[in-house]
Write a structure and sequence with these properties.
alpha+beta, Rossmann fold, 3 domains, binds 5'-O-[(L-methionyl)-sulphamoyl]adenosine
Amino acid sequence: MSTSGTFYITTPIYYVNDVPHIGHAYTTVAADVLARYWRLRGREVFFLTGLDEHGQKVQQAAAKAGIDPQMHCDKLAPQFENLWRKLNISNDAFIRTTDAQHKNVVQRYLQELFDKQLIYKADYSGWYCTFDERFWTEKDVADSVCPDCKRPVEKLSEHNYFFKMGQYQDQLIDHIKKHDRFIRPESRRNEVLGFLQTQKLSDLSISRPKSRLSWGIELPFDTDYVTYVWFDALVNYVSALEYLPREKSVGHDFWPANVHLVGKDILTTHAVYWSTMLMALNLPLPETIFAHGWWTVDGEKMSKSRGNVVDPNKMADEFGVDAFRYFLLREVPFGQDGDFSQAAMVTSINGDLANGIGNLLSRTLTMIERFTDRTIPASGPPALPELEEKIARAATQLPATLEHGFNALAFRDNLQAIGELVSLCDEYIDKAAPWKLAKNPGDAPKLKTVLNHSAQALRLLAVSLHPFMPQTMEQLARQLGYRVDFSKTLPASAYEWDSPVADLPIAKGTPLFPRIEIAASDTVGIDLKENAKIEKKESSKQGAKPVSDTLATPEPTPAAATQTSTPTAQATPAAAPAPVSPLQISIDDFMKVQLKAAKILSAERVPKSEKLIKLQVSLGTEQRQIVAGIGKKYDPDALVGKTIVIVANLKPAKLMGIESQGMVLAAGDTDVRGLLTIQEEVDPGTKVK
Ligand code: MSP
């Protein structure tokens, strides 16, 4: 992928059969990050998203709602558009396949292929899946169910129009082989290639008789038919360029697209149907079709019937737009499946964002406020040469790493590289201990170096993270006094480590990422959705990392001193106890809670969680599995054999997809300080009161 010229990126156009969910948000946020990155780097970007409004699914949804399909689409379209505004999606155009101009282009292409005799009429008899809107052959179908969605299929026999897709098989194989980047990731490329090399590619039915489906674009050469929804939908990527370009992009030739982002379930329609359609139309093929993975929710498939569909609006409202955007791209490597849970999101927000970049800004600005006239000082002599060199090296390499990552759509790798720079800066501040340097006038030049380096790194971090979290990074830049126009191409110097920050007037503001406090359940691992009360607190009050606390206490207290020596470990300040609830309960209420002694039989960490440990405990007559948030304090091995106290009659709940059948009692607020254990020999299952 080049770093100059145009960049055309698309998302799938989403069916308007229901409101948007996390899957829609995922692709669209990923596309937005790429679009924003390349705009900042100076490429002329065209970012397209939109809606797929025809076909059986939409017709059925409208019928269910008892309204006309167009009215149904008009009612649902704003739900998508509003979500994109909320999530700060910077699309340049929004296409709806019911747009008259789009319909014209589809009809023009149909006519062209018909005239070239690449579309013919034939009898067809096969198994039809209404849900997937496609025919299957006899050998595909076992037990009258669709091999794809497992819903019942029906035997249909009808005249239809076919696109001669089969004749492009060899040309397509050849194209895939010659263009490494055409289908991504590699595993998906191999899948498609494997299929094309072992099975005969059949022709594609591109019509539906109006007697069966009327909600579609009429075939220009036979008014008894509408076109298959995929023939209509895929054309959007080209038709949009005819009538939707922004003013400034008129005159740019955006086709072929650089990236079609799609989910893994719709790779075949893009890699095979769309590619062969383009070949037949003599249009160049896109540079890359990238298929991302799917989200499960708490370990389960997301579905309406399960009632676990994740609403992106809610996530953005509860956790913040940028934190949600960050989480989507940080949690799993792009291309692989991932599991969504609110617990994982809280861990990511509190860890990477509140304690990470948010706190780095807060502690840096606090020091600049305190030790200077609120301007970033020029660098003095080295304070910690080794670490300073390490930071300079990491920062200098970062832009190239990011470019490489964005070319490969490796969002997570990029966020990891950025996170490493944050950690290095934290280590630097902890070790350089500016609050100590400030006490000795002789160390004043070194103090300036530390402040300068920290601010410098933050400036580069704002630039690097901006595509992921535009609003917050603009806030960061403002607080740092760094004037930069993120709506324009950034100057090359913005990516340079040595770009001067000295003399910038800082303006410390509110914390970038308020920490999310989960009442009780966070420490013991019960279901966040049902039981947790999520409160946002100002991270400055939580004293995330030590500098600002230490600054507030001229002579560090032993507690603060301990924190200073283990800088990244804990987030709870010694001096900020949680408010005590004035709510009193009766003894009867208390007696409803069944507390029991339980013996820990085994313990293991929950993968990808810093905090969670999965315990198997014995209650004498039964064994239970409990997921507890005690992993920061305890090693699993140290827990086996202990007799602890659990709440035995708590409704089972899932944490990161793992069932927890009870709750462990522990002392501590946000962080566990100690597990309640029974020293004496008592039988597991003994009541505790
Ligand atoms: N209308 C077609 C696309 C036509 S493009 C020319 C369509 N629409 S869809 O609304 O059903 O799906 C849109 C996208 O959402 C797909 O890329 C699909 O992979 C994605 N997802 C649906 N559920 C998902 C998850 N659980 N997780 C991640 N993405 C998921 O298909």
